[in-house]
Amino acid sequence: MLIQNIAAEVLASHQAGPEVFLLKLRAPAIAKVAQPGQFVHIRCGETMDPLLRRPLSIHDVGAGGELFLLYQVKGRGTAWLAGRQVGDKVDILGPIGRGFTLPAKKRVALVAGGLGIVPLLFLARRALEAGNVVDFFYGAQDKERLYRLETLEAMAINLFVATDDGSTGFHGPVTELWKEHLREKTYDLSYACGPRAGLAAFARLAARYGIPAEVSLEERMACGFGACRGCVTALLDAQGKIYYENVCTGGPVFDAASVYWGD
């Protein structure tokens, strides 16, 4: 797939939660071909400082060529991005990376932890368009960190919510909520994104119940094209031996069973 470099116009930007922002860009060339699980690489400044681009997963696309990015402010680059106003231009490269495998007319489970919602909302939309039954399990520390709930509630999915502090929904980790449902039903395919510990728990559950599973890994991607080797992750080959792959080029989506979780 051709990676394009465009100057995307800011259509809207607003704060969606504690240090979390939702950015809407006009980027039809990228939105038209983007797949759930892929990301864009953004230059966060008018000059070469900061030098490195910031990788952001594609959160959603619109019918009019809009590109939506949901991200957390963590440093100078993302702080600069949060300051963009309507009409500003943002230099982006994309779409980049390997996305999720999408079946048709199956029952699928999506398990999101915190900002793991970012690629999974787009995936849920495409899964529905392909005629799948979608069970969406969404967990966060508390109800204030459950982002885009209104958007999810408006979609034709089965939504199940968990919070670590019990402020809304199931009291406990979202993987525990998913495990409760696995006792009664099964899925043709499952997907997850979130903190690594949660992904490891998700992968173990999927393996226990014999459910094919894919995970979107979060690593710091410096170049975005596999040249710097700064985002390698440990994987397992067919013989169970560890090898290393770039998340930016080999992923960011991987078969959960192929990831070495350290256990």
From TrEMBL:
Cofactor: [2Fe-2S] cluster; FAD
Descriptive protein name: Dihydroorotate dehydrogenase B (NAD(+)), electron transfer subunit
Annotated GO MF terms: 2 iron, 2 sulfur cluster binding; electron transfer activity; flavin adenine dinucleotide binding; metal ion binding; oxidoreductase activity
Matches recorded under Pfam families: DHODB_Fe-S_bind
Gene (name only): pyrK_3
Xref: CDD domains: DHOD_e_trans
Residue stretches making up the FAD-binding FR-type domain: 3-102
PROSITE patterns, A to Z: FAD_FR
InterPro entries the UniProt entry points to: Cyt_c3_hydrogenase_gsu, Dihydroorotate_DH_ele_sf, Dihydroorotate_DH_Fe-S-bd, Dihydroorotate_DHASE_ETsu, FAD-bd_FR_type, FNR_nucleotide-bd, PyrK_electron_transfer, Riboflavin_synthase-like_b-brl
Cofactor descriptive note: Binds 1 [2Fe-2S] cluster per subunit.
Function: Responsible for channeling the electrons from the oxidation of dihydroorotate from the FMN redox center in the PyrD type B subunit to the ultimate electron acceptor NAD(+).
Domain of life, per lineage: Bacteria
Transmembrane helix as UniProt keyword: no
Entry's Gene Ontology BP terms: 'de novo' UMP biosynthetic process
Coiled-coil portions: none
Subunit composition and interactions: Heterotetramer of 2 PyrK and 2 PyrD type B subunits.
